[in-house]
Write a structure and sequence with these properties.
Layout lengths: L1 H40 L1 H74 L3 H16 L1
Protein name: DUF948 domain-containing protein
Organism: Oceanobacillus halophilus
Keywords: Membrane, Transmembrane, Transmembrane helix
């Protein structure tokens, strides 16, 4: 029984020494955990604010996109009209180009005929007379 008492006493002294050695790091750990508690105490509120801000930003973006879509639907007929005018203008310019090409070919053929028959002076005289009578 004596040995049992000595063993318990040795274990008690060892635990006392261990407690004395570990008391300073445990206080530091308590300070760190207290600081962590203060930091994380405001975390839910901060996350809630960020979530609310993100929801508001996304809602504003959706509203803006809806407005743009509505305005584009209103402008679509104008774009169709502009496209139709562009196609009509293209067809008109193609028609004018073909007429000019035809006139150019006809003029070159007439020029060749007048040079072959030496009628340039005669045509010049007729053009001069036409201009003089036209001005009066």
């Amino acid at each position: 029984m004596l040995w049992l008492g000595i063993g318990v006493m040795v274990i008690g002294v060892a635990l006392l020494i261990l407690t004395i050695v570990l008391i300073k790091p445990l206080f530091k750990l308590a300070g760190v955990l207290g600081s962590l508690h203060k930091t994380t105490e405001t975390l839910p509120q901060t996350v809630n604010e960020l979530t609310t801000t993100a929801k508001d930003a996304i809602g504003t973006g959706v509203d803006t996109l809806n407005q743009v879509n509505t305005q584009m639907k209103e402008l679509s007929p104008i774009f169709y009209i502009i496209g139709d005018v562009g196609r009509a203008t293209n067809q008109l310019s193609s028609s004018i180009v073909s007429k000019v090409e035809h006139l150019k070919e006809t003029t070159e053929t007439t020029k060749d005929v007048s040079s072959n028959n030496n009628l340039q002076g005669f045509y010049g005289l007729i053009a001069l007379a036409y201009l003089l009578f036209r001005q009066k």
